[in-house]
Fold this protein.
Amino acid sequence: MSEIKNDYLWWQTGVVYQIYPRSFQDSNGDGIGDLQGILKRLDYLQWMGVDAVWISPIYPSPMADFGYDISDYTGIHPLFGSLDDFDRLIQEVHARKMKLILDLVPNHTSDQHPWFLESRSSRDNPKRDWYIWKNPRPDGGLPNNWLSVFGGSGWEWDEKTEQYYYHAFLKEQPDLNWRHPEVQQAMLNVMRFWLDRGVDGFRIDVMWHMIKDLQLRDNPVNPDYQNHMATYEQLLPVYSTDQPEVHEIVQKMRKLLDSYTDRMMIGEIYLPIHKLVTYYGIDGKGAHLPFNFQLISLPWEAKVIAAAIDQYEGALPANGWPNWVLGNHDQPRITSRVGIQQARVAAMLLLTLRGTPTIYYGDEIGMRDVPIPFQEVQDPQGLNMPDKNLSRDPARTPMQWDASLQAGFTEGKPWLRLDRAFQRTNVQLQKEDPYSMLLLYKRLIDLRHNEPSLTVGDYTPVCSDNQMLAFTRQAEGHPKFLIILNLSHRPCYFKPSTLTFTGTVVLATSPELEGSVVDESISLSGDEGVIIRITDTRL
Ligand code: NOJ
Protein backbone atom coordinates (compact mmCIF):
# COMPACT_ATOMS: atom_id res chain seq x y z
CA MET A 1 0.00 0.00 0.00
CA SER A 2 2.87 2.40 0.56
CA GLU A 3 3.19 3.35 -3.12
CA ILE A 4 -0.51 4.19 -3.13
CA LYS A 5 -0.10 6.33 -0.05
CA ASN A 6 2.63 8.26 -1.81
CA ASP A 7 0.68 8.80 -5.00
CA TYR A 8 -2.59 9.84 -3.40
CA LEU A 9 -3.61 12.31 -0.75
CA TRP A 10 -4.96 11.31 2.67
CA TRP A 11 -8.47 12.46 1.86
CA GLN A 12 -8.47 10.26 -1.26
CA THR A 13 -7.37 7.03 0.41
CA GLY A 14 -9.03 7.69 3.76
CA VAL A 15 -12.37 6.94 5.35
CA VAL A 16 -14.17 9.92 6.92
CA TYR A 17 -16.35 9.58 10.03
CA GLN A 18 -18.87 12.25 11.01
CA ILE A 19 -19.36 12.97 14.68
CA TYR A 20 -22.41 14.92 15.84
CA PRO A 21 -20.73 16.15 19.05
CA ARG A 22 -23.91 16.63 21.10
CA SER A 23 -24.63 12.94 20.75
CA PHE A 24 -21.30 11.16 20.67
CA GLN A 25 -19.98 11.01 24.23
CA ASP A 26 -20.70 13.11 27.28
CA SER A 27 -17.88 13.44 29.82
CA ASN A 28 -19.38 15.73 32.48
CA GLY A 29 -22.86 14.37 33.08
CA ASP A 30 -24.81 17.27 31.56
CA GLY A 31 -26.37 14.94 29.01
CA ILE A 32 -24.68 16.63 26.05
CA GLY A 33 -21.64 15.20 24.29
CA ASP A 34 -18.40 17.18 24.41
CA LEU A 35 -14.78 17.33 23.26
CA GLN A 36 -13.47 15.38 26.25
CA GLY A 37 -15.97 12.72 25.32
CA ILE A 38 -14.69 12.57 21.76
CA LEU A 39 -11.14 12.30 23.11
CA LYS A 40 -12.19 9.32 25.16
CA ARG A 41 -13.48 7.55 22.06
CA LEU A 42 -10.62 8.21 19.66
CA ASP A 43 -9.17 4.76 20.27
CA TYR A 44 -12.45 3.27 19.13
CA LEU A 45 -12.32 5.24 15.89
CA GLN A 46 -8.74 4.20 15.33
CA TRP A 47 -9.64 0.56 16.01
CA MET A 48 -12.38 0.81 13.41
CA GLY A 49 -9.92 2.14 10.85
CA VAL A 50 -11.27 5.68 10.49
CA ASP A 51 -8.77 8.08 8.90
CA ALA A 52 -10.46 11.44 9.36
CA VAL A 53 -13.02 12.77 11.78
CA TRP A 54 -15.44 15.53 10.80
CA ILE A 55 -17.11 17.18 13.77
CA SER A 56 -20.33 19.15 13.40
CA PRO A 57 -20.09 22.71 14.84
CA ILE A 58 -18.68 23.20 18.32
CA TYR A 59 -18.46 27.01 18.29
CA PRO A 60 -20.25 29.34 20.70
CA SER A 61 -23.87 29.44 19.60
CA PRO A 62 -27.32 30.18 21.03
CA MET A 63 -28.18 26.71 19.64
CA ALA A 64 -31.28 27.81 17.74
CA ASP A 65 -30.11 25.31 15.10
CA PHE A 66 -27.88 23.22 17.36
CA GLY A 67 -24.64 24.95 16.54
CA TYR A 68 -25.29 25.84 12.91
CA ASP A 69 -26.03 29.34 14.23
CA ILE A 70 -22.58 30.57 15.23
CA SER A 71 -22.03 33.60 17.43
CA ASP A 72 -18.23 33.36 17.56
CA TYR A 73 -16.25 31.59 14.82
CA THR A 74 -13.02 31.39 16.78
CA GLY A 75 -14.17 29.94 20.07
CA ILE A 76 -15.56 26.76 21.54
CA HIS A 77 -18.99 26.57 23.16
CA PRO A 78 -18.54 25.90 26.91
CA LEU A 79 -20.98 23.00 26.54
CA PHE A 80 -18.36 21.28 24.41
CA GLY A 81 -15.27 22.43 26.32
CA SER A 82 -12.53 24.97 25.69
CA LEU A 83 -9.92 25.89 23.12
CA ASP A 84 -7.44 23.94 25.23
CA ASP A 85 -9.63 20.86 24.89
CA PHE A 86 -9.75 21.47 21.17
CA ASP A 87 -5.97 21.75 20.90
CA ARG A 88 -5.68 18.52 22.83
CA LEU A 89 -8.16 16.91 20.47
CA ILE A 90 -6.14 17.90 17.39
CA GLN A 91 -3.01 16.63 19.07
CA GLU A 92 -4.53 13.29 19.98
CA VAL A 93 -6.17 12.85 16.59
CA HIS A 94 -2.83 13.48 14.91
CA ALA A 95 -1.02 11.22 17.35
CA ARG A 96 -3.22 8.43 16.01
CA LYS A 97 -2.36 9.37 12.41
CA MET A 98 -5.86 10.60 11.84
CA LYS A 99 -7.08 13.97 10.55
CA LEU A 100 -9.57 16.46 11.92
CA ILE A 101 -12.13 18.22 9.74
CA LEU A 102 -14.03 21.16 11.16
CA ASP A 103 -17.54 22.16 10.16
CA LEU A 104 -17.58 25.75 8.95
CA VAL A 105 -20.83 27.67 8.45
CA PRO A 106 -19.96 30.66 6.27
CA ASN A 107 -23.38 31.29 4.68
CA HIS A 108 -24.99 32.67 7.82
CA THR A 109 -24.18 33.64 11.38
CA SER A 110 -26.30 33.62 14.50
CA ASP A 111 -28.43 36.72 14.98
CA GLN A 112 -26.43 37.07 18.21
CA HIS A 113 -23.10 37.30 16.41
CA PRO A 114 -21.49 40.73 17.09
CA TRP A 115 -21.34 41.27 13.29
CA PHE A 116 -25.11 41.02 13.04
CA LEU A 117 -25.76 42.97 16.22
CA GLU A 118 -23.76 45.79 14.67
CA SER A 119 -25.35 45.38 11.29
CA ARG A 120 -28.87 45.64 12.64
CA SER A 121 -28.05 48.52 14.99
CA SER A 122 -28.54 51.20 12.31
CA ARG A 123 -28.78 51.61 8.56
CA ASP A 124 -25.48 53.45 8.43
CA ASN A 125 -23.49 51.06 10.57
CA PRO A 126 -20.29 50.06 8.72
CA LYS A 127 -21.37 46.41 8.93
CA ARG A 128 -24.88 47.07 7.58
CA ASP A 129 -23.99 45.58 4.19
CA TRP A 130 -22.36 42.52 5.70
CA TYR A 131 -25.88 41.07 5.62
CA ILE A 132 -28.66 41.19 3.05
CA TRP A 133 -30.98 44.07 3.93
CA LYS A 134 -33.80 45.15 1.69
CA ASN A 135 -36.69 47.60 1.68
CA PRO A 136 -40.25 46.36 1.40
CA ARG A 137 -41.73 46.39 -2.09
CA PRO A 138 -43.49 49.68 -2.94
CA ASP A 139 -46.81 48.01 -2.05
CA GLY A 140 -45.38 47.22 1.38
CA GLY A 141 -44.86 43.54 0.58
CA LEU A 142 -41.84 41.32 1.16
CA PRO A 143 -38.78 42.12 -0.99
CA ASN A 144 -39.29 38.91 -2.98
CA ASN A 145 -40.89 35.47 -2.68
CA TRP A 146 -37.90 33.57 -1.32
CA LEU A 147 -38.71 30.96 1.30
CA SER A 148 -36.80 29.72 4.31
CA VAL A 149 -35.64 26.11 4.20
CA PHE A 150 -37.11 25.72 7.68
CA GLY A 151 -40.56 27.05 6.72
CA GLY A 152 -42.16 30.43 6.10
CA SER A 153 -40.68 33.45 4.36
CA GLY A 154 -36.95 33.94 4.05
CA TRP A 155 -37.37 37.60 5.04
CA GLU A 156 -37.60 38.98 8.56
CA TRP A 157 -38.71 42.50 9.36
CA ASP A 158 -36.49 44.59 11.60
CA GLU A 159 -38.65 47.04 13.53
CA LYS A 160 -35.86 49.37 14.51
CA THR A 161 -34.27 50.01 11.12
CA GLU A 162 -37.39 49.29 9.07
CA GLN A 163 -35.89 46.91 6.55
CA TYR A 164 -36.04 43.19 5.96
CA TYR A 165 -33.05 40.87 6.26
CA TYR A 166 -32.74 37.57 4.43
CA HIS A 167 -32.28 34.22 6.17
CA ALA A 168 -32.21 31.00 4.16
CA PHE A 169 -32.72 29.05 7.40
CA LEU A 170 -34.06 30.34 10.74
CA LYS A 171 -34.61 34.04 11.38
CA GLU A 172 -31.94 33.51 14.04
CA GLN A 173 -29.53 32.66 11.16
CA PRO A 174 -29.18 35.80 9.00
CA ASP A 175 -27.36 35.23 5.70
CA LEU A 176 -24.08 37.02 5.22
CA ASN A 177 -23.59 39.13 2.11
CA TRP A 178 -20.75 37.27 0.44
CA ARG A 179 -20.49 39.90 -2.27
CA HIS A 180 -18.94 42.20 0.35
CA PRO A 181 -15.11 42.00 0.30
CA GLU A 182 -14.90 42.51 4.07
CA VAL A 183 -17.14 39.52 4.69
CA GLN A 184 -14.90 37.42 2.48
CA GLN A 185 -11.80 38.58 4.33
CA ALA A 186 -13.38 38.02 7.74
CA MET A 187 -14.31 34.44 6.92
CA LEU A 188 -10.95 33.67 5.33
CA ASN A 189 -9.41 34.93 8.55
CA VAL A 190 -11.58 32.50 10.48
CA MET A 191 -10.30 29.70 8.29
CA ARG A 192 -6.72 30.85 8.86
CA PHE A 193 -7.29 30.82 12.61
CA TRP A 194 -8.20 27.13 12.56
CA LEU A 195 -5.67 26.13 9.92
CA ASP A 196 -2.95 27.68 12.05
CA ARG A 197 -4.23 25.61 14.96
CA GLY A 198 -3.71 22.51 12.86
CA VAL A 199 -7.11 21.48 11.48
CA ASP A 200 -6.77 19.41 8.34
CA GLY A 201 -9.82 20.64 6.52
CA PHE A 202 -13.32 22.02 6.55
CA ARG A 203 -16.74 20.78 5.70
CA ILE A 204 -18.38 23.90 4.31
CA ASP A 205 -22.03 24.17 5.27
CA VAL A 206 -24.53 24.87 2.42
CA MET A 207 -21.81 25.87 0.00
CA TRP A 208 -24.28 26.33 -2.85
CA HIS A 209 -26.24 28.95 -0.90
CA MET A 210 -23.41 31.40 -0.38
CA ILE A 211 -24.16 33.86 -3.19
CA LYS A 212 -27.60 35.09 -4.21
CA ASP A 213 -28.84 36.70 -7.40
CA LEU A 214 -27.69 40.32 -7.51
CA GLN A 215 -31.20 41.51 -8.42
CA LEU A 216 -32.85 39.21 -5.86
CA ARG A 217 -35.39 38.08 -8.45
CA ASP A 218 -38.41 35.97 -7.47
CA ASN A 219 -37.92 32.22 -7.57
CA PRO A 220 -40.24 30.34 -9.95
CA VAL A 221 -42.97 28.02 -8.73
CA ASN A 222 -42.06 24.33 -8.56
CA PRO A 223 -44.59 22.54 -10.79
CA ASP A 224 -43.84 19.22 -9.08
CA TYR A 225 -44.57 20.37 -5.55
CA GLN A 226 -46.71 18.03 -3.46
CA ASN A 227 -48.25 18.67 -0.08
CA HIS A 228 -46.10 16.25 1.89
CA MET A 229 -42.95 18.12 0.86
CA ALA A 230 -41.27 20.84 2.91
CA THR A 231 -42.87 24.22 2.16
CA TYR A 232 -39.47 25.44 0.89
CA GLU A 233 -39.92 23.17 -2.10
CA GLN A 234 -42.92 25.15 -3.34
CA LEU A 235 -40.41 27.22 -5.30
CA LEU A 236 -37.35 26.31 -7.35
CA PRO A 237 -34.47 28.15 -5.66
CA VAL A 238 -32.83 29.15 -8.93
CA TYR A 239 -32.09 32.73 -7.85
CA SER A 240 -31.40 32.17 -4.17
CA THR A 241 -28.81 29.37 -4.60
CA ASP A 242 -26.14 28.04 -6.96
CA GLN A 243 -25.22 31.36 -8.55
CA PRO A 244 -22.19 31.38 -10.89
CA GLU A 245 -20.28 33.79 -8.65
CA VAL A 246 -20.22 31.24 -5.82
CA HIS A 247 -17.33 29.54 -7.58
CA GLU A 248 -15.15 32.61 -7.13
CA ILE A 249 -15.70 32.36 -3.39
CA VAL A 250 -14.94 28.67 -3.30
CA GLN A 251 -11.80 29.35 -5.29
CA LYS A 252 -10.65 31.90 -2.74
CA MET A 253 -11.17 29.42 0.06
CA ARG A 254 -9.26 26.82 -1.93
CA LYS A 255 -6.39 29.20 -2.57
CA LEU A 256 -6.08 29.75 1.14
CA LEU A 257 -6.11 26.01 1.84
CA ASP A 258 -3.48 25.46 -0.83
CA SER A 259 -1.18 27.90 0.92
CA TYR A 260 -0.97 25.32 3.73
CA THR A 261 0.24 21.73 3.38
CA ASP A 262 -2.20 18.89 2.80
CA ARG A 263 -5.47 20.61 3.77
CA MET A 264 -8.83 19.98 2.17
CA MET A 265 -12.39 21.17 1.81
CA ILE A 266 -15.64 19.25 1.53
CA GLY A 267 -18.65 21.15 0.24
CA GLU A 268 -22.17 20.43 1.42
CA ILE A 269 -24.14 20.71 -1.81
CA TYR A 270 -27.56 19.28 -2.60
CA LEU A 271 -27.73 19.65 -6.38
CA PRO A 272 -28.20 17.36 -9.38
CA ILE A 273 -24.98 15.72 -10.55
CA HIS A 274 -24.30 17.95 -13.55
CA LYS A 275 -24.38 20.99 -11.26
CA LEU A 276 -22.67 19.31 -8.33
CA VAL A 277 -19.55 18.56 -10.34
CA THR A 278 -19.07 22.23 -11.21
CA TYR A 279 -18.04 22.69 -7.56
CA TYR A 280 -14.75 20.93 -8.27
CA GLY A 281 -14.02 24.28 -9.91
CA ILE A 282 -12.28 25.24 -13.10
CA ASP A 283 -9.04 23.26 -13.36
CA GLY A 284 -9.97 21.53 -10.12
CA LYS A 285 -9.45 24.72 -8.11
CA GLY A 286 -12.70 24.43 -6.18
CA ALA A 287 -13.82 22.03 -3.46
CA HIS A 288 -11.77 18.84 -3.08
CA LEU A 289 -14.92 16.87 -2.37
CA PRO A 290 -18.33 18.29 -3.25
CA PHE A 291 -20.47 15.93 -1.17
CA ASN A 292 -22.24 13.41 -3.37
CA PHE A 293 -25.58 12.63 -1.70
CA GLN A 294 -27.04 10.32 -4.35
CA LEU A 295 -27.10 7.29 -2.05
CA ILE A 296 -29.19 9.37 0.34
CA SER A 297 -31.61 10.92 -2.09
CA LEU A 298 -32.32 8.15 -4.60
CA PRO A 299 -34.73 5.26 -4.18
CA TRP A 300 -32.89 2.12 -3.07
CA GLU A 301 -33.36 0.22 -6.33
CA ALA A 302 -30.53 -1.64 -8.05
CA LYS A 303 -31.09 -0.17 -11.50
CA VAL A 304 -31.47 3.37 -10.20
CA ILE A 305 -28.36 3.15 -8.03
CA ALA A 306 -26.31 1.49 -10.78
CA ALA A 307 -27.28 4.21 -13.24
CA ALA A 308 -26.51 6.92 -10.70
CA ILE A 309 -23.01 5.53 -10.06
CA ASP A 310 -22.30 5.46 -13.78
CA GLN A 311 -23.75 8.90 -14.29
CA TYR A 312 -21.57 10.28 -11.51
CA GLU A 313 -18.43 8.51 -12.74
CA GLY A 314 -19.15 9.88 -16.20
CA ALA A 315 -19.76 13.44 -15.03
CA LEU A 316 -16.64 13.80 -12.86
CA PRO A 317 -14.13 16.26 -14.26
CA ALA A 318 -10.57 15.12 -14.98
CA ASN A 319 -8.87 14.60 -11.61
CA GLY A 320 -12.13 15.17 -9.75
CA TRP A 321 -12.04 12.70 -6.88
CA PRO A 322 -15.37 10.98 -6.14
CA ASN A 323 -17.01 10.56 -2.74
CA TRP A 324 -20.03 8.75 -1.32
CA VAL A 325 -22.26 9.22 1.71
CA LEU A 326 -25.03 7.08 3.23
CA GLY A 327 -26.20 9.42 5.96
CA ASN A 328 -25.69 12.56 7.97
CA HIS A 329 -27.30 14.56 10.78
CA ASP A 330 -29.94 16.02 8.44
CA GLN A 331 -31.24 12.81 6.91
CA PRO A 332 -33.05 9.68 8.05
CA ARG A 333 -30.56 6.95 8.91
CA ILE A 334 -29.73 4.32 6.30
CA THR A 335 -31.06 1.54 8.58
CA SER A 336 -34.44 3.24 8.71
CA ARG A 337 -34.53 3.92 5.00
CA VAL A 338 -33.63 0.48 3.71
CA GLY A 339 -33.90 -1.85 6.73
CA ILE A 340 -31.20 -3.44 8.82
CA GLN A 341 -30.38 -6.24 6.37
CA GLN A 342 -30.05 -3.91 3.38
CA ALA A 343 -28.00 -1.55 5.54
CA ARG A 344 -25.30 -4.25 5.45
CA VAL A 345 -25.40 -4.26 1.66
CA ALA A 346 -25.30 -0.46 1.72
CA ALA A 347 -22.18 -0.57 3.90
CA MET A 348 -20.54 -2.86 1.38
CA LEU A 349 -21.49 -0.53 -1.44
CA LEU A 350 -20.21 2.57 0.38
CA LEU A 351 -16.88 0.93 1.17
CA THR A 352 -16.24 -0.64 -2.22
CA LEU A 353 -17.16 2.24 -4.50
CA ARG A 354 -14.44 4.42 -5.97
CA GLY A 355 -14.11 7.57 -3.89
CA THR A 356 -13.90 8.75 -0.32
CA PRO A 357 -16.60 7.27 1.91
CA THR A 358 -18.11 9.21 4.80
CA ILE A 359 -19.68 7.23 7.64
CA TYR A 360 -22.25 8.88 9.93
CA TYR A 361 -21.69 8.05 13.61
CA GLY A 362 -23.78 5.11 14.76
CA ASP A 363 -24.45 3.78 11.28
CA GLU A 364 -21.59 1.38 11.88
CA ILE A 365 -23.67 -0.35 14.55
CA GLY A 366 -26.91 -0.10 12.63
CA MET A 367 -28.47 2.63 14.76
CA ARG A 368 -31.94 3.48 13.53
CA ASP A 369 -34.13 6.56 13.63
CA VAL A 370 -35.55 6.83 17.11
CA PRO A 371 -39.16 7.95 17.54
CA ILE A 372 -39.15 11.17 19.54
CA PRO A 373 -42.48 11.95 21.23
CA PHE A 374 -43.96 15.17 19.94
CA GLN A 375 -43.46 17.08 23.17
CA GLU A 376 -39.75 16.21 23.12
CA VAL A 377 -39.02 17.36 19.56
CA GLN A 378 -36.10 19.78 19.54
CA ASP A 379 -35.19 20.28 15.88
CA PRO A 380 -36.50 23.61 14.55
CA GLN A 381 -37.21 22.03 11.17
CA GLY A 382 -39.51 19.55 12.89
CA LEU A 383 -41.12 22.15 15.12
CA ASN A 384 -41.76 24.62 12.29
CA MET A 385 -43.46 22.09 10.01
CA PRO A 386 -45.10 19.78 12.56
CA ASP A 387 -47.40 18.03 10.08
CA LYS A 388 -44.63 16.93 7.70
CA ASN A 389 -42.54 14.57 9.78
CA LEU A 390 -39.37 16.49 9.00
CA SER A 391 -37.73 16.51 12.40
CA ARG A 392 -34.08 15.52 12.22
CA ASP A 393 -33.97 14.49 15.88
CA PRO A 394 -34.54 10.77 15.18
CA ALA A 395 -31.18 10.51 13.40
CA ARG A 396 -29.34 12.51 16.08
CA THR A 397 -29.88 10.36 19.16
CA PRO A 398 -27.02 9.47 21.53
CA MET A 399 -24.43 6.95 20.45
CA GLN A 400 -25.05 3.51 21.89
CA TRP A 401 -21.79 2.41 23.46
CA ASP A 402 -22.83 -0.36 25.83
CA ALA A 403 -25.74 -1.84 27.76
CA SER A 404 -25.23 0.23 30.90
CA LEU A 405 -27.62 2.95 32.01
CA GLN A 406 -27.87 5.59 29.21
CA ALA A 407 -25.84 3.33 26.92
CA GLY A 408 -22.53 4.63 28.25
CA PHE A 409 -23.26 7.98 26.58
CA THR A 410 -23.78 10.00 29.75
CA GLU A 411 -24.18 9.71 33.47
CA GLY A 412 -26.88 12.34 33.35
CA LYS A 413 -30.07 12.66 31.34
CA PRO A 414 -29.36 12.59 27.60
CA TRP A 415 -30.45 15.74 25.73
CA LEU A 416 -32.37 13.50 23.34
CA ARG A 417 -33.79 10.15 24.27
CA LEU A 418 -31.91 6.95 23.48
CA ASP A 419 -33.17 4.14 21.33
CA ARG A 420 -34.95 1.69 23.64
CA ALA A 421 -33.02 -1.09 21.88
CA PHE A 422 -29.61 0.12 23.02
CA GLN A 423 -29.11 -2.93 25.21
CA ARG A 424 -29.21 -5.07 22.06
CA THR A 425 -27.57 -2.63 19.69
CA ASN A 426 -24.34 -1.22 21.05
CA VAL A 427 -20.63 -1.06 20.36
CA GLN A 428 -19.57 -3.29 23.21
CA LEU A 429 -21.78 -6.21 22.19
CA GLN A 430 -21.02 -5.86 18.51
CA LYS A 431 -17.28 -5.83 19.05
CA GLU A 432 -17.61 -9.44 20.23
CA ASP A 433 -19.99 -10.60 17.53
CA PRO A 434 -18.39 -11.64 14.23
CA TYR A 435 -21.75 -11.24 12.48
CA SER A 436 -22.37 -7.73 13.74
CA MET A 437 -22.71 -4.61 11.64
CA LEU A 438 -19.72 -3.14 13.45
CA LEU A 439 -17.42 -5.96 12.46
CA LEU A 440 -18.74 -5.84 8.93
CA TYR A 441 -17.80 -2.16 8.79
CA LYS A 442 -14.41 -2.77 10.35
CA ARG A 443 -13.59 -5.64 8.01
CA LEU A 444 -14.73 -3.67 4.98
CA ILE A 445 -12.53 -0.75 6.02
CA ASP A 446 -9.56 -3.06 6.64
CA LEU A 447 -9.96 -4.72 3.26
CA ARG A 448 -10.32 -1.37 1.54
CA HIS A 449 -7.15 -0.12 3.21
CA ASN A 450 -5.18 -3.24 2.41
CA GLU A 451 -6.16 -3.60 -1.23
CA PRO A 452 -5.04 -0.83 -3.57
CA SER A 453 -7.69 -1.92 -6.05
CA LEU A 454 -10.39 -1.08 -3.52
CA THR A 455 -8.73 2.10 -2.30
CA VAL A 456 -7.95 3.76 -5.59
CA GLY A 457 -8.67 1.27 -8.38
CA ASP A 458 -10.81 1.96 -11.42
CA TYR A 459 -14.52 1.36 -11.28
CA THR A 460 -16.12 -0.63 -14.10
CA PRO A 461 -19.80 -1.50 -14.18
CA VAL A 462 -20.44 -5.17 -14.94
CA CYS A 463 -24.19 -5.50 -15.00
CA SER A 464 -27.31 -4.62 -13.11
CA ASP A 465 -30.93 -5.66 -13.14
CA ASN A 466 -34.00 -5.12 -11.01
CA GLN A 467 -32.40 -6.83 -8.04
CA MET A 468 -28.66 -6.68 -8.26
CA LEU A 469 -25.76 -4.51 -9.23
CA ALA A 470 -22.22 -5.66 -9.96
CA PHE A 471 -19.00 -3.85 -10.69
CA THR A 472 -15.27 -4.39 -10.58
CA ARG A 473 -12.46 -2.42 -9.03
CA GLN A 474 -8.87 -2.71 -10.12
CA ALA A 475 -5.65 -0.80 -9.68
CA GLU A 476 -2.89 -1.46 -12.15
CA GLY A 477 -0.77 -4.42 -11.14
CA HIS A 478 -3.12 -5.49 -8.35
CA PRO A 479 -5.81 -8.16 -8.10
CA LYS A 480 -9.19 -7.31 -9.52
CA PHE A 481 -12.28 -7.40 -7.29
CA LEU A 482 -15.81 -8.15 -8.38
CA ILE A 483 -18.51 -6.77 -6.10
CA ILE A 484 -22.02 -8.17 -6.40
CA LEU A 485 -24.79 -6.67 -4.31
CA ASN A 486 -28.34 -7.92 -4.03
CA LEU A 487 -30.42 -4.83 -3.27
CA SER A 488 -33.60 -6.88 -3.06
CA HIS A 489 -34.92 -9.14 -0.31
CA ARG A 490 -35.25 -12.14 -2.63
CA PRO A 491 -32.56 -14.45 -3.98
CA CYS A 492 -30.84 -13.40 -7.17
CA TYR A 493 -28.62 -15.09 -9.67
CA PHE A 494 -25.46 -13.61 -11.16
CA LYS A 495 -24.48 -15.19 -14.45
CA PRO A 496 -23.64 -12.59 -17.03
CA SER A 497 -23.92 -14.09 -20.50
CA THR A 498 -21.00 -12.16 -21.92
CA LEU A 499 -18.28 -12.96 -19.43
CA THR A 500 -16.67 -15.77 -17.54
CA PHE A 501 -14.67 -15.56 -14.36
CA THR A 502 -13.22 -17.47 -11.45
CA GLY A 503 -12.55 -16.10 -8.02
CA THR A 504 -12.81 -16.42 -4.26
CA VAL A 505 -15.22 -14.66 -1.95
CA VAL A 506 -13.06 -12.63 0.41
CA LEU A 507 -15.77 -10.76 2.27
CA ALA A 508 -19.52 -11.19 2.41
CA THR A 509 -22.45 -9.71 4.30
CA SER A 510 -23.10 -13.35 5.28
CA PRO A 511 -19.65 -14.46 6.44
CA GLU A 512 -20.57 -18.12 5.65
CA LEU A 513 -19.88 -17.39 2.01
CA GLU A 514 -16.32 -16.29 2.63
CA GLY A 515 -13.63 -18.56 1.23
CA SER A 516 -15.91 -20.16 -1.33
CA VAL A 517 -14.63 -20.45 -4.86
CA VAL A 518 -16.87 -18.92 -7.49
CA ASP A 519 -16.79 -20.08 -11.08
CA GLU A 520 -18.84 -18.38 -13.78
CA SER A 521 -21.86 -17.69 -11.62
CA ILE A 522 -23.09 -17.18 -8.11
CA SER A 523 -26.50 -17.09 -6.48
CA LEU A 524 -27.11 -14.80 -3.57
CA SER A 525 -29.77 -14.78 -0.89
CA GLY A 526 -31.89 -11.69 -0.46
CA ASP A 527 -30.00 -8.77 1.13
CA GLU A 528 -26.66 -10.35 0.41
CA GLY A 529 -23.48 -8.86 -0.98
CA VAL A 530 -20.09 -10.35 -1.79
CA ILE A 531 -16.61 -9.17 -2.66
CA ILE A 532 -14.83 -11.65 -4.92
CA ARG A 533 -11.11 -11.59 -5.58
CA ILE A 534 -10.77 -12.57 -9.23
CA THR A 535 -8.18 -15.24 -9.86
CA ASP A 536 -8.84 -15.62 -13.55
CA THR A 537 -8.55 -12.51 -15.64
CA ARG A 538 -11.08 -13.36 -18.35
CA LEU A 539 -13.44 -10.87 -16.73
C1 NOJ B 1 -26.87 22.28 6.76
C2 NOJ B 1 -26.62 21.59 8.06
O1 NOJ B 1 -26.13 20.31 7.81
C3 NOJ B 1 -27.90 21.61 8.83
O2 NOJ B 1 -27.85 20.81 9.97
C4 NOJ B 1 -28.24 23.04 9.17
O3 NOJ B 1 -29.50 23.08 9.80
C5 NOJ B 1 -28.28 23.90 7.92
N1 NOJ B 1 -27.19 23.65 7.03
C6 NOJ B 1 -28.21 25.34 8.28
O4 NOJ B 1 -26.93 25.65 8.71
User: Anything to note?
Assistant: The CA atoms of residues 353 and 459 lie 7 Å apart.
